[in-house]
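1st attempt posting a full record on here, be nice pls
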Amino acid sequence: MCVSTMDIAKLYKEQGVNKNPREIAQKIVDSIPQNEIIESTNIAGPGFINVMINQAYLLKQISSIYQNDVQGTILVSF
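the predicted structure (as tokens):
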């Protein structure tokens, strides 16, 4: 399930509270802790959150999968 900032703003509006989707997006972005996975984030348009993955981290993970012949799902945590 993907809940967008526009959906969240709509839920607020149904409760009589006006929230701008970009403001909601900013609060989400501000709450993401510093980590080795996310290189950067930005907010586009009406509140879309773009997340750029750290290239070194991604290459390290791909290399590990290739070298270890890993099959299945990789779990990532912050």
